[in-house]
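It would be a great kindness if you could assist me with a short task in structural biology. I am sending you one protein, given as its amino acid sequence and as whole-number tokens for its backbone shapes. I would ask you to consider whether the tokens describe a fold that such a sequence might reasonably adopt. The full record is reproduced below for your convenience.
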Amino acid sequence: MKRADVFEFYRRLAETDPAPETELQYVNPFTLLVAVALSAQATDIGVNKATKRLFQEVQTPQAMVALGEDGLKQHIKTIGLFNTKAKNVIALSQMLIDEHEGEVPADRDALEKLPGVGRKTANVVMNVAFGAETIAVDTHIFRVANRTGLAKGKNVLAVELGLEKVTPAPFRSHAHHWLILHGRYICKARTPECWRCPVADLCAFKPKTQSPRGKEKRAS
């Protein structure tokens, strides 16, 4: 995708949603970290349902450790891999207490050292909690970047580095959210809804899908 097209791509997404936000519900950087860690291989809707009551009771690493692994499992048992996730959340909470005075570090490398926290989770926390210009590549962003031609790559790191290289400065802070929301609601995995896509003419994906109504009209 040409540089001018990339700028226009983001400009249109920004025009559609000037101030995008994460759909995960959280109270502070710690609860955000927990929510993102829990969201691996799970939906934001499912995580929000599980953490609604949890985050009313637990908002600090100290409170999470006090709740304990079994107590945490009772809150998140509807989420996939909840046993492993509960173990990791308690462990990362203890590590925050032991090594960071109970605070979430505003440092990607330090975040990645926490149990159950990978690069994607660290990037989300850095972006949402601390305003860093990081791009967390999940399945949605990986698909959008490759399908549109915005930043093609064979793995998530290649796509992340590609997006960091091509994304214009004015759009870096919100790029992660625009791309994930675009992939979640328009540029869907099975059938992208090209007929209502604001950047369809800039996208490399062909053939463009037609609306169900358009197909009906052609058939008649």
